[in-house]
Amino acid sequence: MNHAVKAVGLGLRYGQRDALTDCTLEIPEGSVVGLVGPNSAGKSTLLSLICGLLEPSTGTISVLGARPGVSAAHLARVGFVAQNIPLYDNLTVAEHLRLGAKLNPRWDQRLADEHLQPLRGDLKRKAGQLSGGQRAQLALALVAAKRPELLVLDEPVAALDPLARRQFLRRLMELVADLQATVVLSSHLISDLERVCDQLIVLTRGRVQLAGPVEDILTTHYRLLRPSGDPDGLPDGTEIIQALHTDRQSTLTVRSTLPIPGAAPHVQRLDLEEVALAYMGRAQGADEQD
Predict the structure, then answer these.
(1) Boundaries of each ABC transporter domain copy (predicted)?
(2) Mean pLDDT across the chain, nearest whole number?
(3) 257 within a domain of the structure (yes/no)
(4) Which of 81, 122, 162, 207 has a C-alpha 20 to 30 A away from that of 96?
């Protein structure tokens, strides 16, 4: 399997603070990866390292087979939409397109026009006059026309309403199908990621807590409801991710590659958000005990 991104022991330190620590992960080519975690988890730092905007303090990272940002030709293969969707507020939509065509040697005007269909009547409007959803559409059209092999998006839908988020994600998936690109998408909205992603990375306090295919994650994680303090009956190798206790009942989130004995409602499947939150909660609890 070829990997669009491969990191080994990757770390970045700002002064005395570690923004990312011992990050080891592999992102397969052609995958759509969701990156989740609480604020200050290191998500933007990891994405900036992937794009070559930052240099690591420790470890190594390879993107599309080379060091990130190693050359102009390599930069042309990576598309990046930053968290605040940076556009030139005083430039019109049409002027953004002309600028993109001049700056990108692989520019595809057809692709730009296709992804700007919702804005075809607004080409003369300045970017500063567009709504949040329209700005996101323009940013996606610009990065699409670059024809990237790797598309990196840092919380592009955070400020959008539910309808605009759905429209953006639909157009993103159309772009993925057209380009056959690898996508890394950071978001707090895990329910949105579950609709479009086939891989998930959970990052907390600068460390990778979980990484892998969504299908595998969903089939190996369970919620168990048991009498308080009763850990018996778990298969060998079962990992308890999180345990919540009351006087009468223990609620366990576990990971196991083997079937868990028991019947509903005592053994429950989890959705992707529940799994991610369990890992974030475990990491938070461990940090509070240190």
Answers:
(1) 5-230
(2) 89
(3) yes
(4) 162
pLDDT tens, residue by residue, 122-165: 888 999 998 888 888 899 889 989 999 999 999 888 778 888 88
Neighbours of 208 (CB within 10 A): 22
3-state secondary structure of 35: strand
pLDDT given at position 285:
66
User: What's the number of domains the chain is made of?
Assistant: 2
- In the chain, the amino acid numbered 157 is V
Amino acid at the residue 166: R
In angstroms, what CA-CA distances link 112 with 89, 146, 262, 268?
19, 9, 53, 45
Q: How far apart are the first and last CA of the chain?
A: 39
The answer to the question of residue 40 being in a domain is yes
pTM equals 0.90
Q: Which of 260, 207, 271, 206 is CA-nearest to residue 232?
A: 260
Report the share of the chain in percent with pLDDT over 90. Answer: 54
Q: What is the DSSP letter of 240?
A: E
